[in-house]
Design goal:
Layout (H helix, E strand, L loop, with lengths): L2 H4 L3 H4 L4 H15 L3 H19 L9 H13 L4 H20 L29 H10 L28 H13 L28 E3 L2 E3 L3
Antiparallel strand pairs: 1-2
Helix pairs in contact: 3-4, 3-6, 4-5, 4-6, 5-6
Length: about 220
């Protein structure tokens, strides 16, 4: 546990920046045992979005206008509204934890205007037709693919070693068919186990999903 968490110093607290608060929140959440994917999402938001923009600002000096200006800057750089809104959500968590540590007395993110996400896609689910599914299966190689080794390899002299034969061609057809028929999501497919398939009547039970290097229970 950080020393300032045990006995926060008001004078020292005035020097803590947003980046300091983000690192403290990451360590706190890791100690609480939150999922690895959440830690990676929070770290990525700090590293790529709010950190470069206002990360060096002292927590107690940040105003609502600073947060809104950062949000507008992210949108002008091509960030979609949903990602910008999620960035503000992570930043709000940083300030809430800073308030708990007595590094700040208020969160300017609470009053800041957030980008409005307008869904511009068809809300109705769309499934492949049988003809489209058969065309996708026909496009997958039905044999073992042997690749030609690269003429060189980075950092070492001589040609690259020959890659092992790719037997995923025949396997990929089964995976695509398994995903298409019950409508499995991308993260649900690699989480399937033999015991998840009821062979007598062939139902598929989704017991876990794969996301960002770890298995998780589905919501």
């Amino acid at each position: 546990m950080l020393a300032q968490e045990v006995s926060p110093n008001p004078k020292a607290a005035a020097r803590y920046t947003i980046n300091d608060g983000a690192l403290a929140l990451i360590e706190h959440e890791r100690a609480q045992g939150v999922s690895r994917s959440y830690i990676q999402t929070l770290s990525a938001a700090q590293r790529h979005h709010f950190g470069p923009a206002i990360g060096a600002m002292v927590l107690s000096k940040v105003h609502r206008r600073d947060v809104e200006a950062m949000s507008a800057r992210l949108l002008s750089h091509g960030l979609v509204p949903k990602t910008a809104a999620n960035t503000l959500k992570r930043l709000c968590g940083v300030f809430e934890h800073a308030i708990d540590l007595e590094w700040a007395t208020d969160s300017p993110v609470r009053r800041a205007a957030r980008p409005r996400h307008v869904r511009d896609t068809d809300p109705d689910l769309r499934f492949l037709t049988l003809e489209e599914l058969e065309a996708a299966l026909r496009a997958i190689p039905n044999e073992v693919v042997v690749r030609t080794p690269a003429p060189y390899r980075a950092g070492r002299p001589g040609p690259a070693p020959p890659p092992p034969p790719d037997a995923l061609g025949p396997v990929l057809r089964v995976l695509v068919l398994t995903a298409a028929c019950p409508g499995l999501r991308q993260g649900q497919l690699p989480g399937l186990r033999w015991r998840d398939v009821g062979w007598p009547v062939q139902p598929i039970r989704v017991g876990r999903t794969w996301r960002r290097t770890e298995f998780r229970r589905p919501r």
